[in-house]
Amino acid sequence: MGKKIASVLVPVALAVFLILVDGCGAYNPNGTGGGGTGSGSSPGAAQGFYDCTVQQDAPAMEALILPTDVFYGVLGTLAPSSFTPSALIAGQGASGTTTYTGNLTEFLPSGSTSNSTVTATDLPNESISGKMTLSGVQVGFGGAFLPTSSYNYTTAALLSTVGGAWTGGLWDGSAVTLSIDSTGNISTTSGGCNITGQVAPFSNNTINVFNVTNLKFNTSCTVNQTASTAVAIVFLLPDGATHELLMSATFGTTAASVFSGIH
To answer: Is the CB of residue 235 less than 8 Å from the CB of residue 78?
Structure first.
């Protein structure tokens, strides 16, 4: 989000070097066992926030599937009190009663993009496991809902949860302190690049996700552009004390970025 368009915020929002989740669905090391056929269309069945591991180089992936079946998967390195994003997989997918599939886009901090797919078996409100393509390579992945003490997808999002100053950065390495006031207004400055926008509970506020609108980088930024979609989520990191704000933004299918911050 700052110096390059490929470093712009992502909807989301959108964090695991350790998966501290009981019963986490582990990835299939052979990249098999994904979504099958005959499960029937069931829009929204796979929705939720999944704390995942990915076969390739064992990175973490924080995956958000919205009620509309839109997918945001932020890959990165998870430490006890931080999360460092390295890629974003985003796009429109589809739920079956026990499956999830999608033809998505992979965005990298370098600005490059590639086609990505996901084919998975989903246990609603519990776990997901299957295969996806990353930079043209098929890998296995799997994950599970966090314990409710760390994050509860099915509770209403509160502005008081996302408000305050979040110290972190954009995935291009730019250090950023992002501030959100009591009404959801975003303000920040990164190397002279001012970023503004508004955060509000998602849709009818039945899930613990924030929609980010009018996310704009002003004329002092390398690219003066407004995100086409953006979402944010707040959850507790593995140390059990540090809160993470993960915000993901896309600019169509040509660019994206992720903000990761803590307080």
So the answer is: no
